[in-house]
Amino acid sequence: MNQHILLTGATGMLGKDLIQTLLKRGDQVSILSRKPHQMEQVKVFLWDVDQQKIDTSCLEGVDSIIHLAGENISKGKWTDQRKKEIIDSRVLSTQLLFKTLATVPNQVKKFISAAAIGYYGNRGDELLTEESTPGHNFLAECCIQWEKAIDQGQQLKLRIVKIRTGVVLAKNDGALKAMATPIRLFAGAPLGSGKQWVPWIHYQDMTRIYLHALDNSSLTGVYNATAPFPVTNREMTKAIARQLHRPVWPFSVPEKILQLILGEMSSMVLNSTHTTAQKIESSGFIFKYTQLEQALSDIYGA
Question: Does pTM surpass 0.85?
Fold first, then answer.
């Protein structure tokens, strides 16, 4: 049965892929955007999260919302103001959607929202399930506030699914592009100890998890969206280098140097997050890409 999905965060890598995939399978897609523009086969409605304004007609005929909107955490130094913007973009956008759902007649039953593995903070080799306690750094605090805002949708009797996203791998976007750049320039080296766990996922599996959450009424609550076999930063660096036919330096970039250059943002590459994918797999989801070499081969061979 075809669905009508309202999507936020449509201009991001995942948003673009989700739109194309949903349209191909015959679903109807509407999006919320800060700026007016034209999209083929997609209705565009305006919203302004800062002003808490939204075109309420965006809900007409919609039965599901996929909420991906949020400021890019890797864009700009983490000043106090920037941290506030990162959190507010997630919390206030979620609150605006729920406020609209509570006051405007609609038939929305499902709310599938992005979340992030930053929730766990820096945990070394600890195996992290969805029941694990949150961490204590800025990324964890952001995710805690974000998820609390999402959980408010339960008061509207919505089926809520929170997808804790890992490091999404795609060729010309996001984390992989950033990791591959120094390697391409013959400057590839593990970061910090190199022993920190990187919970990666192929972008196609990321899209497929959202469709799985959308289509399966049994899914509710939080799920790790990371491949079954995470790798260390050192293993990730070497695997990318093999695909690009580049060497990797025998030494690591010291943790203190990264902290000096990136400040608090260094936690993005130094956090160790050893997640398990058992819960999403137990729900019936089958990963297409379970091994890093297999995923990278597909991405760079495409």
Answer: yes
